[in-house]
TrEMBL record:
It comes from Maridesulfovibrio salexigens (strain ATCC 14822 / DSM 2638 / NCIMB 8403 / VKM B-1763). Residues 9-109 form the Cyclic nucleotide-binding domain. InterPro entries: cNMP-bd_CS, cNMP-bd_dom, cNMP-bd_dom_sf, Flg_Motor_Flig_C, FliG_a-hlx, RmlC-like_jellyroll. SMART domains: cNMP (SM00100). It holds the Pfam family cNMP_binding. This is Putative transcriptional regulator, Crp/Fnr family.
Length: 388
């Protein structure tokens, strides 16, 4: 271990920073590099969090005047700024008395929660997450007004990213398990999740407890009900990819993608690996997520009415002259906005008005499929003739 200045220490990849159970005399802020926080259970190393530049770790032991609750090692070469107990406690003492008390109480209870989890394993993760959420939220709403004004978006609720970091630093739980518990509580309106869009790839999320006074009682009763159905936080997270879904539903991946695009699948079915998606999104252009570029289709790939936007106007005008008003009305009836605009753009105004009068809410599916098939057969016939 090297040091470039009295208050900075350097660690090489894989080098131990501190061990669980050691006395807590200093905390650290990452100036450069990354650090893994982990626990060892049943001879298995479980990564609780990977921290990056600017993040602080090791402060909980100082606040609670206890020992280290987890292990820390350099995930890569890193420079760490040493924060002494005097610095941490001085910062804490600058907070109002209520916040000081609640913070210390929160940390002590979280340590006890962590000890219980180590002894009992993952079965009580649901109630443990709820207990941590309850304590964190009580601390949040008890904050002095003046202090609350200094905290960004305090009125929106608990910062979800910070809450997850706290939970993972105390109990052996994955981000997916936390997301599953929060999703369950949200679906039952026990909590509310507010998403604030800031121009980033993902919105900032904030959590509010609907009824703080009765939250734990409601959560414990819910857990008892869930136990009767063999619920675990991961029981709702049997992850499958798009190909497994299509096989399970006796479908095709392309059809599943289209149904997702048409919002036929409930949003509660989608779970993403936060870190992987963040890494992927960080490589995209700033406006990548503000618009959708349609991929051009070949003549052979045309099948849905929405695919009509990929056909050139001259071909469509010739096809529309052959189809007749009634069949054009059928196509307009099953078309969405873009496809409708494409159809109307290739009709004379008088004919467009007649065709719009043919639009109806209920269309026979068999008739619609027949008309759609006829449409694209004509398109392929015309385009095929162009190639000769």
């Amino acid at each position: 271990m090297g040091s470039s200045s009295p208050n900075i220490k350097s660690f090489y990849k894989g080098q131990e920073i501190f061990k669980e159970g050691q006395e807590s005399s200093v905390a650290y802020m990452i100036k450069k590099g990354a650090v893994n926080i982990y626990k060892v259970q049943n001879n298995e190393k479980i990564i609780l969090a990977r921290l990056g530049e600017g993040e602080i770790f090791g402060e909980m032991g100082i606040i609670s005047k206890g020992t280290r609750s987890a292990n820390a090692e350099a995930a890569e070469y890193c420079d760490l700024v040493i924060l002494t107990d005097q610095i941490i406690l001085k910062l804490l003492d600058q907070c109002p008395r209520t916040v000081q008390y609640m913070t210390r109480l929160l940390v002590k209870r979280l340590h006890r929660t962590g000890e219980m989890i180590s002894a009992k394993g993952h079965r009580s993760n649901f109630t443990s997450i709820c207990n941590i959420l309850d304590l964190a939220y009580r601390t949040h709403i008890s904050m002095d007004r003046e202090q609350a004004r200094k905290e960004r978006n305090h009125d929106l609720g608990l910062d979800y990213t910070k809450l997850c970091k706290t939970i993972r630093s105390i109990i052996l739980v994955s981000q997916n398990e936390i997301d599953a518990v929060i999703s369950k509580l949200k679906s039952l309106k026990i909590i509310d999740a507010i998403d604030l869009r800031t121009g980033k790839a993902f919105p900032d999320r904030f959590i509010q407890i609907s009824d703080p006074d009765n939250f734990l009682e409601v959560a414990n009763n819910l857990f008892k009900e869930l136990q009767q159905t063999a619920y675990t936080p991961t029981s709702e997270l049997q992850i499958v990819d798009i190909y497994e879904i299509s096989e399970m539903l006796d479908s095709d991946p392309k059809i599943i993608y289209k149904k997702i695009a048409q919002e036929d699948f409930p949003e509660t079915m989608f779970m993403f690996d936060r870190n992987k998606v963040s890494d992927w999104a960080s490589e995209k252009e700033p406006d990548y997520f503000s618009k959708v570029k349609k991929k051009k289709k070949s003549i052979e790939e045309l099948e849905d009415i929405e695919d009509i936007v990929y056909v050139d106007n001259a071909t469509l005008k010739e096809v529309f002259n052959r189809l007749g008003y009634h069949k054009l009305g059928v196509l307009m009836s099953i078309a969405e906005d873009d496809a409708r605009k494409k159809i109307l753009a290739n009709l004379a105004k008088k004919i467009a008005k007649i065709v719009q009068d043919e639009v109806r809410d209920n269309v026979d599916e068999t008739e619609a499929e027949d008309v759609l098939t006829e449409l694209y057969e004509m398109v392929r016939e015309i385009k095929g003739g162009d190639k000769k």
